[in-house]
Design a protein that fits this description.
This protein has 108 residues and is an alpha+beta fold. It is built from 3 helices and 2 strands; from the N terminus they run H-E-E-H-H. A two-stranded antiparallel ribbon has the order 1-2. 0% of the residues are buried.
């Protein structure tokens, strides 16, 4: 592929979209790559839904609701990270077991 065409493809891929999201009764301008537009919009929608859930539980202060939401998100992320590490370890262990079974068979 020639350099000018490759450069055009790279710059087109790097173009970002300007997205307006309403978070906690404020509008924010967010830049997102086209491939991530749906993800960013979904995140904004989920954020609004979770804030509403906290408000329905009686949390009236927006900053308190956002702080609680941020904390819950981090706990969920850490839990997910731990699960991913456990799964990666299990996969690694299974591959090691398979390697121990297959290697002697193919080397004889």
């Amino acid at each position: 592929m020639d350099a000018p065409r490759r450069f055009a493809e790279l710059t087109a891929a790097m173009e970002e979209l300007s997205i307006r999201l309403k978070i906690a009764d404020r509008e924010y301008g967010i830049k997102a790559e086209p491939d991530n537009e749906t993800l960013v919009r979904d995140a904004g929608r989920l954020l609004q839904e979770e804030l509403k859930r906290y408000r329905d539980m009686g949390v009236r202060d927006t900053q308190d609701a956002l702080a609680m939401l941020a904390f819950d998100c981090l706990v969920t992320k850490l839990r997910s990270d731990q699960q991913i590490q456990r799964l990666q370890r299990m996969v690694f262990d299974k591959i090691t077991q398979l390697d121990q079974i297959v290697t002697p068979v193919i080397t004889t």
